[in-house]
Specification:
Length: 140
């Protein structure tokens, strides 16, 4: 779930990246052709900077593990998504990505535990904080 503005990923969908060898290059281009074509239809080379594209083209309105399938195929919308796997020298993150892609319940359990853990970080009580009407601005 979630969306990103064209300006966040435009360079990635229009720039050809150098590949290590011709075989790898052919497989990567073939795999990414439909993906890029869809994204290019939403985000032209110039203009429409604020246009939004879903982080997951397959199940954009569903909370599931498809994001991890996309990363494995090199089809994460943002470059930072793909770097999780491509630059994971020790393979620790890659193991998590493959585990979550293969087991949605494992992903849900890990997500749930992470949310509980994050909920206890710097909890403000009483007059120490505020619930913002607009998350971008402090209430006045």
């Amino acid at each position: 779930m979630g969306k990103a503005r064209c300006v966040s990923f435009r360079q990635r969908i229009y720039e050809e990246s150098p590949e290590e060898d011709e075989q790898t290059h052919h497989q990567t281009r073939r795999r990414g052709t439909l993906f890029r074509r869809v994204l290019r239809s939403l985000c032209p080379k110039s203009g429409r900077d604020g246009a939004l594209a879903p982080l997951d083209l397959m199940t954009p309105a569903r909370f599931d593990n498809r994001y991890f399938h996309n990363i494995i195929r090199g089809e994460g919308l943002l470059e930072s998504d793909n770097v999780l796997v491509s630059q994971d020298v020790e393979g620790e993150i890659r193991r998590h990505v493959w585990a979550y892609a293969g087991n949605q319940e494992l992903f849900f359990a890990s997500f749930r535990n992470s949310m509980i853990k994050m909920g206890s970080i710097n909890v403000l009580a009483g007059d120490e904080g505020q619930i913002r009407r607009n998350c971008r601005f402090v209430n006045t």
